[in-house]
Specification:
This protein has three helices and five strands. It is of the alpha+beta class.
Length: about 80
């Protein structure tokens, strides 16, 4: 997914580069945790507080990739 500098990279704990292109258009909670390098409770807090736009389907959180991109752009432009 192209954003600002054409691509968003995030260092993984192993040192690998994670690119959003590797993910499907609808993300799981685990995907969000990996992309943002946060825990499960922090991810759920972002969903419940409406900071990341998402929805529940059959008792599972569904997160559009664009919602994560928007969240990252919003947070990075705040600095």
């Amino acid at each position: 997914m192209y954003i600002k500098a054409n691509i968003i990279n995030k260092k993984h704990l192993r040192g690998d580069l994670i690119m959003l292109n590797e993910y499907s258009e609808i993300l799981t909670v685990e995907d969000v945790m990996e992309i943002l390098n946060i825990g499960k409770n922090a991810a759920y807090d972002l969903f419940r507080n409406g900071e990341i736009k998402c929805f529940r389907l059959k008792n599972r959180w569904k997160i559009p990739k664009q919602a994560i991109i928007d969240y990252i752009n919003e947070k990075s432009s705040a600095y």
